[in-house]
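Case study 2.
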Amino acid sequence: MATITDGQGPQETPNTQDTRQTKKETRAERKERERLLKYYSASQWTLIWWRFRRHRAAMVAAAVLAIMAVLGIFAEFVAPYGPTTRDTKYIDGAPQIPLFCDHNGCSLRPFIHGVKTERDSVTLRAISVPDPETRVFVNFFVSGERTRLLGLFPTTIHLFGLDDPKAKIHLWGTDDLGRDVFSRTMYATRTSLSIGTLGVLISFVLALVIGGTAGFFGGMIDNVIQRITEIIRVVPIIPLYMGLAAAMPKEWSTTQVYFAMTLILGLFGWPTLARRVRSQLLSIRNEDYVVAATLAGAKPSRIIGQHMLPSFTSFIIVDLVISFPYMILSETALSFVGLGLRPPTVSWGVLLQQAQSIRAIEQTPWLFIPAVFVVVAVLAFTVIGDGLRDAADPYGGK
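Prediction:
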């Protein structure tokens, strides 16, 4: 019998308890078997993603970059004003931080103080200072300047603004022409990140094609490609960009200059990755699986793309991710010294070019805010590169 009674109701026998324990253990074993089946049947990219998710620092860095990318993509919506819009009543103005309380009391709605003009007692120059006796409340999803979201959809809605349509809010202050630093930084984020992305994609494709061809075929093809690579590597970058900047026609639009800058960065950024791809392919081109694929009649492009390149994915990923901050720093540095993008185009380098004077350091330190974006982006890409390297390494992690 499965149960016995003692006048107080049915009780389980030892056999029943053993049966339920066996079922419980079987259920646990089934879950473990399903987990192992899911693990061993997963693709390489799925395994990389699972391992990458456990790298907390890399996930935080990825989230930061995602936020920066969203801010740049939707700059027309996030920024209250255009990159060239001027506020002549608030030139070289300090950042206006939204408040909830001041000496007149507190409010549930954020507000900023109005602006009034005073005369500097030392330089006798007219300056704009906050007026603590006036309040202008901040609203969200307000109607403002007409722009084109993503360059396609006309809109007048902005993320935030002020109740008074004649008043303007400058979260990060203004420059010497009265242009809003916050708005210009949002537009510059899109420009700098997109240049880095397009430049890396161009150099990445060139590196895989050129390095893969040299490493797979070897011989005379490899020698010719390596000589070309060495010539490109020894070209001095700064004089080259000086000559190219001078050669760009003055009548070119900002869009043409932008694509020219991206193309130049991509065309001269592939040699390092190409040499690493070549060295890896040279070391594995005589492996059994490569010989078997060759004897089976597979095309060289399929052998390289389907069999050889995936064997050192971690190296490719790390080089690819590290190339992003290199491209961003290159554009920033060149624009900073006046060899890259030029106004009215805005990028991090163009904005920092305005902050390279002693006067800016002393009187308008908020013009250096774009430098924070550069540092954060470079650090984020570096941390993501470390996380992807650990995730792509089949012998790393736990």
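The chain has a mean pLDDT of 80.
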